Amino acid sequence: MRILHVLDHGLPLQSGYTFRTRAILKAQEQRGWQVAAVTGPRQGAVADAVEAVDGLTFHRTQAALKGGVVGELAGIAAFARRIAAAVDSFRPDVLHAHSPVLDALAALRVARRRGLPLVYEIRAFWEDAAVGNGTGRDGSARYRATRALETWAVRRADAVAVICEGLRGDLIARGIDGDKIVVSPNGVDLTVFGAPVARDPALAAELGLDDAETIGFIGSFYDYEGLDDLIAAMPALVAARPRARLLLVGGGPMEAALRAQAAASPATAAIRFVGRVPHTEVERYYALVDVLAYPRKAMRLTELVTPLKPLEAMAQGKLVAASDVGGHRELIRDGETGTLFAPDDPAAIAGALAGLLADRSGWDRRRAVARAFVEQERNWSSNICRYEPIYQRLTAAATVDGSWQRSPAGI
């Protein structure tokens, strides 16, 4: 089986998107499949048309991003040409495009001209991600147009994968046949991220966490993550638990505002910003944290989409506390694998965290149950099996149709 993945961006850039992609490609290779990837214009400036990163092959699109509809159309056309060239070189059995929808549009153009089956995988709806990132407005003309385009692409793809039940349910409500959709949930590569490292006393001392009860967040600083609510909860948490400290690792669009909020907080001395760290160093910071907190705000994006970071925390044997939104409820059973608290409510956050820190009697069992959940249900070595029946069905159909002769064609 030869699969060509069509991506918005990939390694060596670091994001939740690239980490999921890496896990998929590595797990597929371990299964004996041959994989390669094509990245789009959003990868940015690239030196080589084809490069190897972490043992994976990436075909790059040499195209400058331009704004507006005309710029987006030009980007799709350039991306489609690069996908076609990668098809000529790699000769895949399946095209597997990953959101956003622009990637699906470019891949569809190639798939139809070459008779290749296309799987379209949605990690979040682009219109909702724009609202969550503060670059779009719910219900605007652009929002409605993007939603319509997403539905159009889904109808034309040969199969659709989504990362959670929330996205699947939304597509079914749009009239998409549920049999066409498979859920391929976020997971953890336990061969890379499954063995917690020992606490580093020197790093703890450097950050002033020697004798602390440490609450942590490790990830991207977007508005929808609700980190402003977590910072707002710190005065009440410190009042209840004087040794409580907040460790924030990462960065993003909200970083400046969050640092300013923390500087003005009565609990400023209890808040630590580390900045971004290489993914290979992340485990050192997980080892310093008692409870990982994920206070996502309540909105369509967070109700529909499951995050990756709580799974990483569970794999590291850490307690997880998160807001009670749909995406978290697919991962966390309150009182069993984690703690859920009301979203958009700093007082609820402070109360939940203080309660966890005050009673450690059930910590070991909860961490063990959460870790077992990741091993059994969110391990990429087993998650990857969900793609196999889709690929087999589509390639069998393509063989019967005889529509693709593995011969280069122009685009």
Write the layout of secondary structure elements.
Elements: E1 2-7, H1 16-30, E2 34-39, E3 50-53, E4 56-60, H2 68-90, E5 94-98, H3 101-114, E6 118-122, H4 126-133, H5 141-156, E7 159-162, H6 165-173, E8 181-183, H7 190-193, H8 201-206, E9 213-220, H9 227-240, E10 244-251, H10 255-264, E11 271-275, H11 282-286, E12 291-294, H12 300-304, H13 309-315, E13 319-323, H14 326-329, E14 339-341, H15 346-358, H16 363-377, H17 380-383, H18 388-401
Parallel strand pairs: 1-2, 1-5, 2-4, 5-6, 6-7, 7-8, 9-10, 9-12, 10-11, 12-13, 13-14
Antiparallel strand pairs: 3-4
Helix pairs in contact: 2-3, 3-5, 4-5, 9-15
Give an overview in words.
The chain has 411 residues and is an alpha/beta fold. The protein has 18 helices and 14 strands. It has helices at 16-30, 68-90, 101-114, 126-133, 141-156, 165-173, 190-193, 201-206, 227-240, 255-264, 282-286, 300-304, 309-315, 326-329, 346-358, 363-377, 380-383, 388-401; strands at residues 2-7, 34-39, 50-53, 56-60, 94-98, 118-122, 159-162, 181-183, 213-220, 244-251, 271-275, 291-294, 319-323, 339-341. The strands form two sheets. The protein has an eight-stranded mixed beta sheet with strand order 3-4-2-1-5-6-7-8, sandwiched between helices. The relative contact order is 0.12.
